[in-house]
Structures are given as C-alpha cells and as structure tokens.
Amino acid sequence: MSVTVWIPRDAGALALGAEATARRIEKEALTAGVEVKIRRNGSRGLYWLEPLVEVESTEGRIAYGPVAVKDVPALVAAGMLKGTAHPLRLGDIEKHPWLASQQRLTFERVGRTDPLDLAAYRASGGCKGLARALELSPEAAVNEVLESGLRGRGGAAFPTGIKWQTVLRQPPGQKYITCNADEGDSGTFSDRMLMEGDPFSLIEGMTIAGLAVGADRGYIYLRIEYPHAYAVLGAAIEAARAAGLLGPDVMGSKRAFDIEIRLGAGAYICGEETSMLESLEGRRGEIRVRPPLPAEKGLFGAPTIVNNVITLATVPWIFAQGAKAYQEFGLAKSRGTLPLQLAGNIRRGGLVERAFGLTVRELLEDYGGGSLSGRPIRAVQIGGPLGAYLPASQFDTPLEYESLSAIGALLGHGGVVAFDDTVDMLEMARYAMEFCAHESCGKCTPCRIGAVRGEEALAALGNGGDRDRLIALVEELCDTMLNASLCGLGGMTPFPVQSAMKHFPEDFRRTRGG
Amino acid sequence: MSAVAAPAVDEKRILAIVERHRHRAGPLIEILHEVQANFGCVPPGTVPVLAHALNLSRAEVHGVVTFYHYFRTRPPGRHVLQICRAESCQAAGGRAVEQHAKNRLGVDFGGTTADGRITLEAVYCLGLCACSPAAMLDDEVHGRVTPERLDVLLDARAKAKP
After folding, report:
1. CATH classification at residue B140
2. Of the four listed, A237, A253, B31, B156, which is most buried by Cβ atoms within 10 Å?
3. Do A284 and B67 touch (CB under 8 A)?
4. What is the pTM of this model?
5. What is the pLDDT of residues A327-344, one digit of tens each?
6. Nearest Cβ partner of A342 from B64, B127, B130?
C-alpha cells in the first residue's frame, strides 16, 4: 500500500529546501521498501516550520517540521511514513494553536489541497459561489458584495461593492476585470501564497466579478518576481478553460469570461492602479491623473474593475456562504477577515488570517513569539515601504483600518515587519526616500525631485551634517511630497520618514561621525 | 558595466516574436519579455525594429525599455544573483548579505564579474519575507540567507555549472 506524503511547492517552502526534502524522502522510502506518493500543496503559512511534511495515516494527516534534508534518513528510520513519534512530529497541524486560533476564510484551502486539483477544489466548496452568482441578476450580485462590507485588500481599502456598482452602471459595451497581482510591498506575501496555493479561487472570483458587471475579459497583472505563481496560475487557467469554467460558455451559462496573465517588469509603481493600467496597455508605468476613475475609463478607455488578489479570491467565499456570514467577522467598518503577514526579525513568521481586531502586540508576541534575534522589538513597519513605523508604545493598536488611521498609520496590504533594537531609524528613513527615488515614475516633481533631495539630506544627517538645517529641510520636503504628489508613492513616502522622526527622535539627534 | 557584449540584432527573429503577439492588445511589454528571454537582453538595435513593426515611435519603445528595471540592454553573466534589499530582509540581517556578496564578487549591484560569470542584482521583495533575508540564484529561491550560506550556494554553483 502506498503512503501519501504532502510537501509544499510554495516558493517560501522551496526557499527553505522543500524540493530537496521531497527528493530525499522519495529516495529513503525506496531504500526502506515503502511505496510513497509525493503530493504537492500550498504552504499552511507557518514558515518557521517549513519544509512542513504531512504524512497521511489512519489518524489523518500527521505533520513533521521543519524537515531539513539531513533529518530525512533518521525520520524515515524512526517510522515517519507511518506517522510515529519523533521530536519533529507536530501531529495534526490544524490543531496547532498557531493555526487553530485563526479564522481562515480566504485561505481555507491553502495548504490543504493540491492547488491544481480541480476535483479537490470543487469537493472543498469551490465553484459554489460561481454557481450562485450565475443565478443572480447583476444588481443582486453587486449588492451581495456591498452587503458583505468587503474593502479592497490591496491597501487603499476602498469598498469593493461601490467599485463594482460604478462599473455596472456604465453603459453596456466592453468592460474589463483586472487583478492587481503586483504585490511589491516588503513584508507582504499573501497574494503570492494564494496564487500558488489556491489559484482557482482567484479565477472564480474574477469570473464572478465579470458576470456581475458585464465584463467578458480579465487580466491578471503579475509581478515578474513571482515566477512560481506565474507557472501555477497559467496551469490553473488552462485547467479552468478545459473544464468550462472559463471561455465562451462559463459553466454552461452561455456567458463568456476569460483571463490573460500579463507580466510586470520590475516597477513598484505599477502596483498603483492607474500605473498598472498603463503597463497593461504596454506603456511606461506612469500614473494617470484621476478623474476619470478606472471604473469609468480604465483599461483601453473602458470601464474597469481593479481589485487586488485577496479581494477577488475572497469573493467566492462571500457568494458561497452569503454576505451576512462574511459581515459577521470583524468590527466597525472593517468587516470580514484580513490575512496578516508577519515578517522581518520575527521568530514565527507567516500568514495569520483572522477577523479584524487583533492588536499589533498580540500578533508580534502570541503569533510571532518575539524577535528572531531574541532582542526586544523596537519598531514595526505596517503596510509596506509607504507605511508608518510604530514604536512599542503603540503596539496595543488594533490592526484595523480606522484605529491605525487614527494614529497616522495605515494597514495597507497587511504586512507587518518587525525590527529589533539594533535598527537605526535614521537609516530606515533614508532608505524610504532612496526607495521612492528608485521607483518614482517621474511624472510629478514632488516625488521625482523630493525623494532624491530627501535621500541626500538624510544621508548628510547620518554623516554628521548640520542637524537643525537638515531636519527642517526633510520636514519641508515631506510636507511638499505629502500634499502635492499625484499618487501614493510620493504622497505616502513621508509616512515612514515622519513617523521615524517623531517616534525615534534620538536616532536623528545622535552625534554621528562625518 | 557588463563584461558581456550585446548580441547582434537578428531582425527576422524579432519580427517573428512580434507576429506571435500581434493579436494581443497593447503587446509591447509582452514582446520585450520574449525578446529578453531569447537574447538575454533587449539589444538597443531592437528598438527601431519594434517601433516600425508596431507603428510606434522609437522614443515610445525606448521609453518603455528604460522605464522597467527588469529589461536590460546588455546580457547578464552566466548566472544572476539577486539579493533582496527591502525592509523585511534588512530587519533580518540582509545588509550583511548584500555587503558580503559585493565583497566576494568584487562588483556593486548591477555589475558582472570580470570573468562574465555572475551578475549581482538588487531586488525589491521576492515575497519570501517570512524567511528573510531572501535571495534568488538563477531560478532558485533561497530564504534565511547568511553570508556563510551564500558562500555555500555560490561554491556549489561554481562546481556544478562554472
């Protein structure tokens, strides 16, 4: 009888050696005379336990981790393929407190199934949302999203239903669904995990969006830095077409929808929605002045929905379980769940999907287990390179849109990066300006010039320059960028800079060698 | 400066690539991706060819090629080492890895070793932030990279594929 062993093909697991572990298990099993069937899943998101190996047994899936190549011979000898005890044995991973305490809706399938197994997708509730959407009128479908309270998970948190409604209300004709998969914020990887771990949910979500607003064509704008996601998505789209989930006759409805993937080319700015549309049209990713909104005049001048991967991949759950069920998660104006991503200098990094409301401290301590270095966590940056730095005194802030906004921070795409007390916040502020200068599309002056000057001033400060003059200059530059930039890149780069100056003034006032 | 010269422009092959993508809306970036996959870069000589074939100005094509960090006008070394410079990796010791790579290879970001073996590049997030610092050597991803682990990787690559 053959033993089924699950090993993730997620890029994060591969980065920690999952491929070599898989090959070694096959080899050791052969030597031991045990027939094994290696199956590949997405990652469960407990990255400090990757490569996480799960063995199917009579007691269910028994996990071991982290399983390095060198551990495999001893593990197999100890009876891992029968699920027997070992110091690396974790038992049923879904009972692990780190996972059991989560509320996985968008990520319900990730890590459980083979991402390209369409039968498993259907068996675990996939396509139910699409089937229901096909029975609803466009207005009713858009209402479902409105009532769910879902807000854009890419960072701007705009109510998804309102975007859809705007597109629906445009005159009939060519409309588009575009998925922003240009996840470039440091500390974020939920889009990547989802595309690699459950691509059909994204395809289903885009299809529902297309049916709801009358668009027959979708584009996924995927960053070039995600080759693994590209491969999985491409295969999933082909499988969906072959099964009639995409194409001229979606699920026998006589209604058409199809998806094309377009690759980015290493430009952070293309995560900004209008810059992404320019890039999709084959041009320089320079941002467009709004209005008109993309919902009115978007891709190739047609009404266009621009939604993030997580937003779209959550849609099937909402349609399958109902808007009300989704609404019941979360608090105030932050409804549903948020897949948080815990990164940086942290012991137990990974994906934490929970209803809104968890505090920064709970995330860092209960889930993260403190810093990886063992030193105190001095700062966290939330929401990527344009997000504010929070000092420890703000760690009791709940991770939801309004609470963070109230302290001048933002949730963004939900990435939380921890820094220990060796961090130099002046250097992080300088880096924020350097990054903005590197990625500026150049269209508006505050961003193009401001970031260059800001970087110079902060570098001069680090080299022992005239402190008061340089700090005043940086403050003035931040003010100009904040108020006069055309988009969020120039307009939000001041957030990390100003928050670093405000909460960690000692790093800016320290005497430094020149 | 790259140690490797740009290849001669093979107009026929470039036009064949254009034809494969002509039916798509706004195909220029897709075409550039395929040109780079075939030639290792987008040789400057391709710009007028593409402009003519797509009825664009040379300035428009040049503008796109130079806007995106991924497109290069000279081929890289035989191997490409990308090291993530973003915040999460910095928080976990990425700067030491960057410095070590520069010292060992004797080049800065964007440079290619004198023997044309390795090009060192900065990358801004590989989405491997839960196992920072991250790097990519050719098409292989690596997490929790340290200067010592980087040496092991580069030594192994030197043995397997010089």
Report:
1. 3.40.30.10
2. B31
3. yes
4. 0.97
5. 999 998 999 999 999 999
6. B130
